[in-house]
Each structure stands twice: as C-alpha cells, then as structure tokens.
Design a protein that fits this description.
With 162 residues, this protein is of the alpha+beta class. The protein has four helices and eight strands; from the N terminus they run ββαββαββαβαβ. The chain folds into two domains: 42 residues, no CATH class; 97 residues, Rossmann fold. The longest helix is centred in the N-terminal third of the chain and has 9 residues.
C-alpha cells in the first residue's frame, strides 16, 4: 500500500523512456529506487534540477521603497478596547518578500487586513505610504486602486484580492 508521506523516496509515478522498445511506460512504484534510477537522477526528476543547484548564487536586486508603515495601531475587530498591533512600523522595498509572523491571535491578520482597507482589523493610529505618498485606504477598492494586492491566509474564507 503506498504511503502518503512527504518522503521524496516514497510513492510516485514515473515515466521511464529508456526501455529500448520505443514505448513510454508509466510506472507506479512504492520507491523510485525500484525504477533502477540512481538517487541523483530521482532527485533531479522530482525537483527539476540537481541538488547542487538548490540555492543558486544570485545577487539580490533590492530597489526603491514601495510601501512604508509608521506607528500603525490596530484594534481587535470583535473585542472592544483590545489592541492587537501597537505602533508597528516597517517598509517594503522593490524585490523584497516580507512576511508577518506570530502565534495565532497575535494580530497578524488584523494588521494585514487593516493595511488593505478592510474593517476586520480597525486602525486607530498610524500612517501608510505607497510610493512615498501618504494614502488613507478606507476600502479594498481604495487599496487595489493604490496598487496593493492581498493574498489572505484563508482564501476560501477571505478571498484573494489582486
């Protein structure tokens, strides 16, 4: 019985064109090594590149400031008087990937949604700058018009706003 774990040497289907009769066969196997492939070939087949190219050298191209948040304070959407993000400040530059981390209930969602103009987290203080210009986003439409996109943590519940 095939396993459903994330082991790269676990179950997989693989095409093996090296049989010599010109036929392409699809083989479902418990282990890729059953195909007679060396471990490196199976890794290349699985990932599309060799493991020595796992982290290819590249020069990061960090550009100009795209968004800046200063002193952003957000109230909890359903608990009156509860501050979930207090005086948050950060900037995002072209070419950067920024993640907001924290435990459940730490205010990540409220912070992100308040920046995107949603009422789920209610902003009480702070400034938001897009391309160096201060903006006041009162709705999702305002945020999209300003050039923001938001990939929610739960797209089924909150949608995808691009």
């Amino acid at each position: 019985m095939p396993r459903a774990d994330l082991d790269p040497w676990g179950p997989r289907a693989s095409a093996d064109p090296r049989r010599g009769d010109g036929l392409l066969r699809r083989v479902l196997t418990e282990k890729p090594r059953d195909l007679g492939l060396p471990r490196t070939a199976a890794n290349h087949d699985h990932r599309g590149r060799d493991l020595n190219n796992l982290y290819p050298d590249h020069e990061p191209k960090i550009g100009e400031e795209m968004m800046r948040v200063e002193g952003w304070t957000v109230m909890h959407p359903t608990v009156p008087g509860r501050i979930v993000s207090d005086n948050a400040s950060f900037d995002v530059r072209r070419g950067e990937i920024v993640g907001i981390a924290g435990l459940m209930g730490a205010g990540r969602t409220e912070l992100a949604m308040s920046l995107f103009g949603q009422a789920y987290g209610r902003k009480t203080a702070g400034k938001l700058f897009i391309h160096g210009k201060e903006v006041d986003l009162k709705s999702v439409d305002d945020a999209i018009e300003a050039g923001l996109a938001y990939a929610t943590e739960d797209r089924k519940r909150y949608g995808l706003n691009l």
